[in-house]
Amino acid sequence: ASGHVDRFADLMVKDLKNGECFRLDHLIKAHLEKLMTEKNVTPQQIAEYEDIIVKLDGYSKEEMNAILRKFDMKSPNTGNDLSDALEFNLMFSTSIGPTGNLKGFLRPETAQGIFVNFKRLLQFNQGRLPFAAAQIGNSFRNEISPRTGLIRVREFTMAEIEHFVDPRSKDHPKFKQVKDLKLTLYSACNQMNGESAFVSTIGDAVQKGIVANETLGYFMARIYQFLVTVGVNRDKLRFRQHMSNEMAHYATDCWDAEIKTSYGWVECVGCADRSCYDLSQHTKATGVKLNAEGQLKEPISFVLRFLM
């Protein structure tokens, strides 16, 4: 119901002789970074390679295939030819029950447990919006190529907060407390245009439509405050917006809090406006209405006209 079975995938390529698999975006980045270190590389070539790396997350399957062939990339381990890009689902599949006829998946995120319990959580909050629920637990992702120590592994602990609001008004009552906070933002437009990240108050970013709404902006600011409080260097902290081609199927806007490490920029926290996607999908699958009701301040009047 969540959509992860059909859409939760990364692109990979295979060694055509031994079948070894490589995550395509990592392969392209590593190959271009290697080319930039060669003695005869020109400034124009370096600029081209850097531009591709910056825009890599936003490229489509066809565009990444074209880059793979343009630079005649081979298997980094054997030098063998590589296949075209293939979509690889990141969920671990399993069989449920003694017969093994019922297929299941290990959860790739903890949030779905919150969504399926929305009705009960709403009752706990006396039927009122907004409210939030938090959960900490293990998640599992069948990564194509686990790497860089504990940064990319197949089993890890996640902490998630789902904050439910009235979709007609995504203002936040405490947004004024953080609106003047300055964040380093790396918007989708900046990435596609090859521009650098910029510093802006979160208030201006919301007002200009760079960040979708006050609620999303408020939590980005709070994430920033938390990370700085626990010791993250604010000069090595930025928020990068997902580009359209990498945006999760459930999100309308998404920003990652990234920290610059010895491995480069690494995602630490994701902050997404998931709209009503998850609740709508679970409602369709189960027939149980997962919605909230509210009392209007004034009746809505309307006129019915019948034409004969």
From TrEMBL:
Gene3D superfamilies: 3.30.40.230, Bira Bifunctional Protein, Domain 2. SUPFAM superfamilies: Class II aaRS and biotin synthetases. It is found in: Cytoplasm. Its main location: cytoplasm. Homodimer. Belongs to the class-II aminoacyl-tRNA synthetase family. This is glycine--tRNA ligase. It comes from Araneus ventricosus (Orbweaver spider).
